[in-house]
Amino acid sequence: MSGATKLSEATLRTLGDRVQVPTYDRRGLPQGIVHVGVGGFHRAHQAVYLDDLLHRPGAPPWSICGVALLPQDARIRDVLRAQDGLYTVVERSAAGDRARVIGSITEILHAPEDPEAVFERMASPVCRIVSLTITEGGYYVNQGTGAFNDAHPDIQHDLAHPHAPTCSFGYLAEALDRRRRRGLPPFTVQSCDNLQENGAVARRMFLAFLRLRDPALADWVAADGAFPNAMVDRITPATTDEHRAMVRRSSASTTAGRS
Question: Boundaries of each Mannitol dehydrogenase N-terminal domain copy (predicted)?
């Protein structure tokens, strides 16, 4: 641990040539993307792609607000907040290891602790996309029939408590209802999970949920919302103590993601 630099906005420029760091100004970047499920896959892929884009001249001034949805996700919230949203990704190949610091996540929220903040980030006119890495089970597909599993306890809870949800569909529904009432268009719902035609699955399952919650809201999202399909065929290996030690030896930070 001796000699390691604790990663933060204040220490970013001290890393010198030892590791690639964000060269764009992260201060005040609007959070055009709200991402639900800030796990290793998101941190090693979508957040990296936006970091790449932000280094390009004329890039749209967007950043990511990450949402940790589950009670046990408080740890990733704590780690990222302590590092000002910064973290290190390590790319390993036969040519060698390469570390870089990712700066595209500028805020992290823990939904169980502050649901109102999550609703308002999604309902903000700045938000254009809500992206999801919530695993296959997060879409509530009945594996026997392919239909929406409206009997799932998460769904039953969120239908009974629409303003105090616990699952991703409930959060999206509440935020979209606020946008509709404020005269704002729906955000794009971007599934990033490894499902065939994941956007179509997300649309079908989410609209089924909305029809049970509020048919008028479902009609509005069906008419004006977007659920693009995305190809996802990657994995992110779990970070081990060996990887952390290697990053420390390179004078980078302890890290939450690798590709």
Answer: 32-244
